[in-house]
Amino acid sequence: MKSATGIASTQTDRKREIVAHRDVRIDVIAEGAGPLVVLLPSRGRDSEDYDDVAWEIAKAGIEFLRPQPREHAAAPGR
Q1: For residues 31 and 59, what is the distance between their CA atoms, to the nearest angstrom?
Q2: Quick one: pLDDT at residue 22?
Q3: Which CB contacts under 8 angstroms, 24+ apart, belong to 55-62?
Q4: Is residue 29 part of a domain?
Q5: What are the residues whose beta carbons fall under 8 Å from the beta carbon of 59, sequence distance 6 or more?
Q6: Reading across the β-sheet that carries 24-31, which strands appear in turn?
Q7: Has residue 9 been placed in a domain?
Q8: pLDDT tens-digit readout, 6-64
Q9: Residue 78 is assigned to a structural domain of this protein
Q10: Distance in angstroms between the alpha carbons of the first and the last residue of the chain
Q11: Nearest CA-CA partner of 66 in 12, 26, 29
Q12: Residue 43 lies in a domain
């Protein structure tokens, strides 16, 4: 199933991929399906710090999107 973000996901599935637009690349974690909620972690926090919260929100029928801060992003080519 494709979500509003274009990243495939289901309520029990977690996807991680690099989203690119021109010369910008953002490492994104998406899970769930339904209305979209975007979490922007504060400075010095990894979006994976919110795994438990994201899982509960996804189980409730909401798509949860978490861009990774640059210092925590996946290596290029991942």
Answers
A1: 9
A2: 92
A3: 55/31, 57/32, 58/11, 58/12, 58/31, 58/32, 58/33, 59/11, 59/32, 61/11, 61/32, 61/33, 61/34, 61/35, 62/32, 62/34, 62/35, 62/36, 62/37
A4: yes
A5: 11, 32
A6: 14-21, 24-31, 63-67, 36-38
A7: no
A8: 544 444 578 888 888 999 888 888 888 889 888 887 777 778 888 888 888 888 888 88
A9: no
A10: 22
A11: 29
A12: yes
Q: Note down the domain range covering 66.
A: 14-72
Q: What is the pLDDT of residue 2?
A: 44
Count of the separate structural domains present in the chain = 1
How confident is the model at residue 15, as a pLDDT? 86
pTM (two decimals): 0.60
CB atoms closer than 10 angstroms to residue 9: 21
Grouping H, G, I as helix, E, B as strand and the rest as coil, residue 13 is: coil
Measured CA angle at 74 (ends 27, 12), to 5 deg: 65
Q: Give, as one character, the DSSP assignment of residue 73.
A: P
